[in-house]
């Protein structure tokens, strides 16, 4: 049981009517690692995330979160999942603290237990002084940090981050990325980081390249770059056929 | 406390906070039936004669007749308000927080439904208190006896709102719900006039009113307020509750993918 991957996706396909969004996708996110899911807009990253989070039902293949099959054991699988969605998902009417308390309740964490945990994660994302602020009053970077804190509240084993830096300025983007890397190390959680920005990927990161619903590469970013003379951008362009 | 209770309390707390934060919503929910009671009913009292019909054992003022209908109207609007917030939450993305909870969808939707009914009960009892001051005096025990009827009718109308929210793709479409659901349901019912009056005008309309679930919600409340049970209405409201809630759970099932908007990436 200790060697089970944080996420196992096996032969998953998904269509919207006649449009094939994912075609026989298989990937593994190892425990304790940072894996980047790289793909251009429309590659199928969000569709894959919606399947893993069970916002869409998976009809083919299998998805396991920390060894729990999403179809047969959805409760156990979703308990082990923390999610930061591509678009903002904080409740604008609530304060930051109320948002986190609400999320904790939705994971069955009682108020007495949730309160100190909320304070702890807000301090970790450097938002403790904004706990009482309405979510609608936060900057883009602060919203993202609050959403990362929210995703960690129930101590998940796998963190899914869907283009978490989209819409942020360069400084906020770097801060959010650095924060995520620090937190996944501190919380010993695995992360699947969906992005289309190559600068966000380190050579030691796991890398999955998704293009037009198909997996084109799995390995480390360093391995992909080495195959293209040390240039990850070149490797990505060669694999996908996308014009620079 | 079990995780299930915690999750339910969290959802109920969220709904209450939303209600408290939107004070205008409480005011609007209260003012709407009061306008009907104070102005509309006063005008119609002179025009509309009412015969003695169950559960009333004597002639009643028009204000007395419409009071149960206005209670149901509060719940109808509250149910639609819940539906509106579901669509709003889906548009803003906040709904995904709810839907990725590890608890089953039926439980999450059911908790949201019950929380909405609790809010509607506060509104109805505030209205009944003002109506009492205005001179509408049902039997005092009726104010207690009506509670289960209000819970059941609130659940039925809330479930209908949930079901509708799964089919409404955009907030802008909500005006259609007002025009094609709320107004026809309210006016084609026994809320404002007894059905025998309707039959005098049109048999077809009378039949429509008889099959309108809102009519049965009104009659369930009316009879309970006067310490009686309208068994037919109880059956219809319970059946419609099961139908609407079952439909909502089905429509929000991940297999149908209707809980969220399709978005590529």
Secondary-structure element order of chain A, N to C: EEEHEEHEHHHEHEEEHH
Q: What percent of residues of chain B are in strands?
A: under 5%
* Name of the CATH first level of chain A: Alpha Beta
Largest interface: A-B, 51 and 39 residues
Number of helices of chain B: 11
Give the structural class of chain A: alpha/beta
- In CATH terms, the superfamily of chain A is P-loop containing nucleotide triphosphate hydrolases
Largest sheet of chain B: none
Rounded to an integer, what's the Rg of chain A over CA atoms?
18 Å
- Going by CATH, the architecture of chain A would be 3-Layer(aba) Sandwich
Number of domains of chain B: 1
Give the uncertain stretches of chain A in residue-range form.
none
Kindly report the average pLDDT value of chain A. Answer: 91
Q: Structural class of the helices, strands and pairings of chain B?
A: mainly alpha
Helix content of chain A: 25-40%
- Shape label of chain A: globular
Rounded to the nearest angstrom, the distance between the terminal CA atoms of chain A is 44 Å
What oligomeric state do these chains adopt?
heterodimer
């Amino acid at each position: 049981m200790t060697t089970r991957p944080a996420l196992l996706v096996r032969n998953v396909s998904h269509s919207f009517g006649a449009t094939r969004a994912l075609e026989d996708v298989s990937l593994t996110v190892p425990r304790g690692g940072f894996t980047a899911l790289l793909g251009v807009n429309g590659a199928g990253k969000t569709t894959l995330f919606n399947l893993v989070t069970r916002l869409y039902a998976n009809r083919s293949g299998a998805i396991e979160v920390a060894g729990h099959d999403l179809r047969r054991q959805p409760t156990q699988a979703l308990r082990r999942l923390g999610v930061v969605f591509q678009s903002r998902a904080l409740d604008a009417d609530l304060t930051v603290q109320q948002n986190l308390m609400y999320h904790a309740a939705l994971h069955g964490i009682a108020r007495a237990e949730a309160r100190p945990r909320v304070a702890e994660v807000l301090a970790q994302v450097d938002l403790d002084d904004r706990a009482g602020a309405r979510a609608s009053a936060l900057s883009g970077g602060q919203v993202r940090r609050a959403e990362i804190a929210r995703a960690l509240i129930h101590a998940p084993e796998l963190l899914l981050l869907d283009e978490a830096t989209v819409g942020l300025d360069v400084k906020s983007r770097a801060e959010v990325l650095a924060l995520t890397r620090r937190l996944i190390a501190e919380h010993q959680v695995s992360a699947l980081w969906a992005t289309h920005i190559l600068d966000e990927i380190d050579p030691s990161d796991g890398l999955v390249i998704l293009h037009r619903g198909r997996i084109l590469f799995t390995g480390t970013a360093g391995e992909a770059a080495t195959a293209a003379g040390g240039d990850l951008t070149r490797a990505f362009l060669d694999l996908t056929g996308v014009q620079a | 406390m079990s995780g299930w209770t915690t999750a339910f309390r969290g959802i109920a707390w969220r709904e209450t906070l939303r209600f408290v934060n939107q004070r205008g919503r409480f005011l609007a929910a209260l003012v709407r039936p009061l306008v009907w009671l104070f102005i509309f009913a006063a005008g119609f009292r002179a025009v509309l004669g009412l015969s003695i019909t169950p559960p009333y054992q004597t002639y009643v003022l028009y204000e007395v007749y419409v009071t149960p209908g206005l209670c149901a109207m509060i719940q109808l609007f509250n149910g639609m308000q819940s539906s509106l917030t579901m669509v709003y939450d889906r548009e803003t993305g906040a709904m995904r927080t709810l839907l990725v909870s590890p608890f089953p969808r039926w439980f999450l939707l059911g908790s949201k439904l019950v929380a909405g009914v609790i809010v509607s009960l506060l509104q109805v009892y505030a209205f009944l208190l003002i109506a009492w001051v205005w001179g509408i005096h049902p039997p005092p025990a009726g104010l207690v006896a009506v509670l289960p009827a209000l819970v059941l009718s609130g659940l039925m109308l809330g479930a209908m709102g949930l079901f509708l929210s799964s089919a409404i793709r955009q907030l802008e479409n909500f005006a259609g719900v007002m025009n094609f659901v709320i107004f026809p349901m309210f006016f084609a019912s026994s809320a404002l006039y007894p059905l025998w009056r309707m039959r005098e005008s049109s048999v077809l309309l009378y039949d429509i009113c008889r099959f309108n679930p809102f009519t049965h919600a009104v009659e369930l409340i009316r009879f309970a307020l006067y310490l009686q049970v309208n068994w037919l209405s109880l059956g219809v409201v319970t059946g419609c509750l099961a139908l609407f809630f079952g439909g909502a759970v089905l429509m929000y099932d991940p297999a149908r993918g209707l809980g969220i908007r399709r978005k590529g990436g």
